[in-house]
């Protein structure tokens, strides 16, 4: 559709063989990634569940071939997030998966298996956030995570970020601002905080460790010690 007039562009007609579940465009508008259940694009080959095309022409980039997104399988792509040459994919299938792909070639950089669909994905700086329906013991690549996990983008190492999101299904969607990650779903609590279906986390890159307090002094008293210090900047 024309964004100004809403006019339908009948000439723009890329074809996939099954449902589209997710889409994301590059910041410069030169590329779009389409994910879902499909296995063929314009009748051509088995290119996985993700395709890359030119948003202006609808022409597919057949040089992009998605690698596995869930335990060696190209699973339905339920969510995607793009930053630079990294494409983060939340996948369904057997259990669920969260995978980082090379945005140019589609090659899998790393892939994590979950015990439920990964329906949200946010790629921000040093960290990749994966959210969905997984939860409980060994629910995300063998670690205990309840509906959300964080992975170091460059290495694939899973961080200690592990908030407890309640409910059976948890997260259905995720979004971001420059220094925060938002989650939406059917939950009512995150940790000890009441959160009715929507919540926010500070991006791990935005968190800083405070400096040590200065000028610490101790004054001895009768069965007590009085401590004083300067609050760090």
Write a brief structural summary.
The chain has strands spanning 20-25, 32-36, 50-53, 77-83, 86-91, 96-102, 108-114, 118-124, 127-132, 148-152, 171-177, 180-185, 189-190, 193-194, 198-202, 214-221, 224-230. With 233 residues, it is an all-beta fold.
What are the segments in which pLDDT stays under 50 over at least 5 consecutive residues?
none
Spatial gap, N to C terminus = 51 Å
| Number of helices in the DSSP assignment | 0
Shape descriptor: elongated
Spatial sequence of strands, sheet with the most strands: 4-5-6-7
Provide mean pLDDT, rounded. Answer: 91
Profile the largest sheet: 4 strands, antiparallel
Alpha-beta content class = mainly beta
Spatial extent as radius of gyration: 22 Å
Helices and strands, in order, run as EEEEEEEEEEEEEEEEE
Beta-strand fraction estimate: 35-45%
- Helical content, roughly? under 10%
- The total count of strands amounts to 17
Explain what this protein looks like in three dimensions.
With 233 residues, this protein is an all-beta fold. The chain has strands spanning 20-25, 32-36, 50-53, 77-83, 86-91, 96-102, 108-114, 118-124, 127-132, 148-152, 171-177, 180-185, 189-190, 193-194, 198-202, 214-221, 224-230. A four-stranded antiparallel sheet has the order 4-5-6-7, with no helix packed on it. It has a three-stranded antiparallel sheet with strand order 1-2-3, with no helix packed on it. A three-stranded antiparallel sheet has the order 8-9-10, with no helix packed on it. The model has no long low-confidence stretch (mean pLDDT 91).
């Amino acid at each position: 559709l024309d964004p100004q007039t809403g006019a339908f562009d009948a000439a723009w007609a890329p074809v996939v063989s099954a449902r589209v579940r997710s889409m994301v465009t590059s910041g410069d508008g030169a590329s779009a990634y389409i994910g879902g259940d499909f296995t063929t694009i314009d009748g051509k080959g088995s290119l996985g569940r993700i395709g890359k095309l030119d948003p202006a022409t609808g022409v597919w980039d057949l040089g992009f071939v998605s690698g596995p997104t869930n335990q060696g399988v190209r699973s339905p792509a339920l969510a995607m997030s793009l930053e630079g040459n990294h494409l983060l994919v939340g996948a369904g299938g057997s259990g669920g998966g969260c995978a980082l792909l090379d945005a140019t070639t589609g090659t899998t950089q790393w892939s994590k298996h979950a015990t439920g669909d990964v329906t949200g994905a946010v790629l921000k700086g040093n960290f990749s956030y994966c959210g969905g329906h997984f939860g409980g013991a060994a629910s995300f690549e063998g670690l205990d995570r309840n509906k959300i996990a964080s992975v170091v983008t460059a290495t694939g190492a899973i961080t200690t970020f592990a908030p407890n999101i309640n409910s059976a299904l948890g997260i259905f969607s995720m979004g971001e601002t420059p220094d925060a990650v938002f989650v939406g779903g059917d939950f009512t609590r995150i940790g000890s905080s009441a959160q009715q279906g929507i919540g926010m986390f500070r991006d791990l890159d935005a968190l800083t460790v405070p400096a040590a307090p200065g000028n610490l002094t101790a004054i001895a008293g009768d069965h007590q010690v009085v401590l004083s210090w300067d609050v760090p900047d």
